UniProtKB/TrEMBL annotation:
Family of this protein: Belongs to the PCNA family.
Function: Sliding clamp subunit that acts as a moving platform for DNA processing. Responsible for tethering the catalytic subunit of DNA polymerase and other proteins to DNA during high-speed replication.
Subunit structure: Homotrimer. The subunits circularize to form a toroid; DNA passes through its center. Replication factor C (RFC) is required to load the toroid on the DNA.
Protein name: DNA polymerase sliding clamp
Keyword check for DNA-binding: yes
Domain Proliferating cell nuclear antigen PCNA C-terminal as annotated: residue spans: 130-241
Keywords assigned: DNA replication, DNA-binding
InterPro entries: DNA_clamp_sf, Pr_cel_nuc_antig, Pr_cel_nuc_antig_C, Pr_cel_nuc_antig_CS, Pr_cel_nuc_antig_N
Domain Proliferating cell nuclear antigen PCNA N-terminal: 11-101
MF term (GO), any: DNA binding
GO biological process, one term: leading strand elongation
Gene (name only): pcn
């Protein structure tokens, strides 16, 4: 496996987002691209990230290669990447080599872990409500609600999406709709469910890599957040509802 990121800062934030949920992960590379998926230790979040070969400036892979990596350590190394740096990866025996090139070249090696490819859980869900918006819109709303409570209430009514939180300071509620320009698209039925604020907020680091996102939900079913990435890539997060 060998590849060079076309947008180094964006790739860094994708890895940073994944590391918020998992300390270790299996990177599966095929001729089609790279996939990372898994379930967080609390078993609240399932994530599925796909970066197609076209997402990278250069990309080489065997038919299929599975490598395990410590995502926390990888994220720590990638924190050194600056805006205009070039970022490359390649497997070298039992190590993953990370090459950061800017005003000078830095080479890091991480030991590969013995891990198997994660099997996707069966998620045959029908979502009563769907909304599409700019990723920065969703991120800004979540930033504004994050300090007010640890439970996010997601509801829909009359084609509008509401994100709200209740805390010691009272209730804060944000209305998002196509009428006020916050949503690009919206469709579905009325519904209401609650989710852990921290889990939802941690997905918004994808804003550095994603321009648009889609939100799917229904009453007492998982919240699906689909972050669109260039060249058909995506980052999907399924967050289990809180039991009221």
């Amino acid at each position: 496996m060998k590849f060079k990121a076309l947008d180094a800062p964006a790739f860094v934030y994708i890895i940073k987002t994944i590391s918020e949920f998992m300390d270790e992960g299996a990177i599966v590379s095929t001729n089609d691209g790279i996939r990372i998926n898994g379930i967080d230790p609390s078993r609240v979040v399932f994530l599925d990230i796909f970066l197609p070969a076209g997402y990278f400036e250069n990309y080489e892979s065997k038919d299929k290669e599975v490598i395990g990596i410590n995502l926390e350590d990888l994220s720590s190394i990638l924190a050194r990447v600056k805006k205009d740096d070039a970022l490359s990866f390649e497997t070298d025996g039992s190590n993953l080599k990370i090459i950061i090139e800017g005003s000078f070249q830095r080479i890091f090696s991480l030991p590969l872990l013995s891990m198997e490819e994660q099997k996707n859980p069966s998620l045959n869900l029908e979502f009563p409500f769907k909304a599409k918006m700019l990723t920065v819109t969703f991120s800004d709303v979540m930033d504004g609600l994050a300090d007010l409570g640890d439970t996010l209430v997601v509801s829909s009514e009359g084609g509008k999406l509401y994100l709200s939180v209740e805390g010691d300071m009272g209730e804060s509620k944000v209305e998002l709709s196509t009428d006020n320009g916050a949503l690009l698209e919206a469709s579905g039925n009325d519904a209401k469910s609650t989710y852990g604020m921290e889990y939802v907020l941690n997905t918004t680091k994808m804003r550095k890599a994603s321009d648009t996102m889609e939100l799917y939900f229904g009453s007492q079913i998982p919240l699906k957040l689909h972050y669109e990435l260039p060249q058909g890539g995506y980052g999907e997060f399924y967050i289990a509802p809180r039991v009221e």
